[in-house]
Amino acid sequence: MARQGQWELIIGLEVHVQLNTRSKAFCGDATTFGAPPNTQTSPVSLGHPGTLPRLNEAQVRAAVKLGLALGSTIAVRTAFDRKNYFYTDLPKGYQITQDAVPICGGGVLPIKLGDQWKEVGIHHIHMEEDAGKSIHDQDPEHSLIDLNRTGVPLLEVVTEPELHSADEVDAFMSAMRQLVRYLGISDGNMEQGSLRCDVNISVRPKGSTTYGTRCEVKNLNSMRHARRAIAYEASRQIALLESGQPVGRYTLHFDAATGRTSPLRDKEAAHDYRYFPEPDLPPLALSASFIESVRAELPPLPKALYEWMRISCGLGDYEATLLSEQLDTALFFRALTQHTPHHHKAANLVINKVLPWCKAKGITLSDFPVPQTSLAELIELVVVGVISHTVAWQELFELLCEAPHQHPKDLAQAHDLVQQSDGDALKAIATEVLAAWPDKVVAYQKGKKGLIGFFMGQLMRRMRGKADPKRANQILRQLLENCQ
Amino acid sequence: MHIDDKLISRLELLTRLRLRGSERERLRADLEKMLSMVDKLSELDLSEVMPLTHITDVWNNWRADEVCGQLSREEALRNAPDTDGIFFRVPKVIQSKSKST
Fold it and tell me: Is the Cβ–Cβ distance between A220 and A229 less than 8 Å?
């Protein structure tokens, strides 16, 4: 059995982000996921001789946007290269990619591990195109090829080898998915292949400063598979090293059915991509004004919003994580805080009422009907004690959603939801309650002070939840002490 | 540079071409000529010269992100060596279930 404790796991990722552009990277074919096979192609994506690629501006904008968000350096002069290899779902015989000068270099992605942040170094980001899809299990004699995906624009994000566990890989992929969704450049959906990763894994004795031989596990399209592949590879490599055998440098395929990895091809022998500059595409010169126009489109980023919620709004980790998970939620909450100083109540309202309401109605937050000023007013009514928290959250909120342009206070009055804090009225009801339960009054006076909750419950029931709980509690205690 | 048999075999593998004996001989001679010309060029000191990768002075030339110029499936499959009417059909490539870049 491998003793994992004495080994350190070193992991670097190559993350493929499939962009959500309308058309492909180098021609006008549509990119709709799930379209019938071979209905989104053209002479360019089919690799017919004599055709010429022409670059989609949206791919460049997406690359620069991601680069700026990660703090990368944007290459003002860049170009494409050809990566030559032979495979049936690559009709041209080469992939258009960037090798010599990728569009973005350096940068970091902050990932959250528990309540600690870790900055994972980005080596570079380059633009490239996707290959088609081969289906090997539908026909006993043949492989079937669907070229709809051929030429769909991708960004490949290559990290530094700075991840050390499956948990960190998980956190990185979650942060990347969140970021590309914030930026609106990809749907980030791993199940549909919009976000995939190749995992480079090696192990070394703890404390060592040199890297072991790494293996690359290709094309993991779910975090569950990535976790299993990493666990399997780590123990396989450790077992080899502990028995004195070297780890060979392989490209591996992960078999989800068996949970094992197996060599896809021998990296030393078969890999000869013969990169050279792509002659069919002119080089790129990115002007400062172009880069600034992309920068102007950047939304606030997840970590900044999370920290603003923690520090400026005083929210806890749970609330801040939830509210910053998606950009529209974070911006909705931020807009609400412009109208109310009660940030905890605002967070509670968004998390427990607004989001579930939208989910139940199947609408997005941008279609939520109640103006933020009204939500702020509803919170204010609770804070000053005009209506109880329970009534506000359970009844008034629903009424407001049905009549979004009414004032919460008017609605509360019209539906008789205003809280009773008038002393005389409360005292009369409290006296009724105590008279109805004389034995419990005696028990209370003999020391069963917990019964105050019972009396409160009875009082609230009689007042249909509209009593000001603080005042009511005060009056009940007074009456109980005095009639002793 | 000497082109040996091993290198010819490697090029055969990379290009997916199968060469006959006489073709190998001819290609070896051609490649040696080409490489000796490159060797000749290498005599120049070009350390100060930027590599020329593109011969026109065109930059960027991007297109807007719009869908246009698609083929129907029938048109797309018209030049396929083999098809079932939906997919391109090729000899079985690998045993395992799926593979892509």
Answer: yes
Q: Which residues of B touch A141 (CB under 8 A)?
A: 91-92
Provide ipTM, 2 decimals: 0.85
Cβ within 8 Å, pair B62-A60: yes
SS (H, E, C) A38-80: CCCECCCCCCCCCCCCCCEHHHHHHHHHHHHHHCCEECCEECC
What's this model's pTM, rounded to 2 decimal places? Answer: 0.86
Out of B90, B96, B101, the one facing A145 most closely (by C-beta) is B90
CATH number of the B5-41 domain? 1.10.20
- B85: tokens are 């009417």
Judged against a pLDDT cut of 60, whether residue A130 lies above it is answered with yes
Tokens of A399: 């009424």
Nearest-Cα residue of chain B relative to residue A136: B97
**Residue A86 in contact with partner chain B when CB distance is under 8 A:** yes
Q: From the candidates A142, A156, A196, A264, which should be mutated to test the interface with B, based on the most B CB atoms within 10 A? A: A142
Taking the CA of residue A1 and the nearest CA in chain B, the distance in Å comes to 29
To the nearest whole angstrom, how far is the Cα of B49 from the nearest Cα of chain A? 17
Position A397 confidence tier, pLDDT thresholds 50, 70, 90: very high
For A228-239, how does the pLDDT look when each residue is reduced to its tens digit (9 = 90+)? 999 999 999 999
pLDDT number for residue B97: 44
> At B82, which amino acid appears?
D
Nearest CB to B16; choose among A42, A86, A147: A86
Per-residue pLDDT, A417 = 81
Please report which confidence band the pLDDT of residue B100 belongs to, taking 50, 70 and 90 as the band edges: very low
Instruction: Classify residue B21 as exposed, middle or buried by CB count within 10 Å of its CB (0-12, 13-18, 19+).
Output: exposed
Which phi and psi angles does A15 have, rounded to 5°?
-100, 125
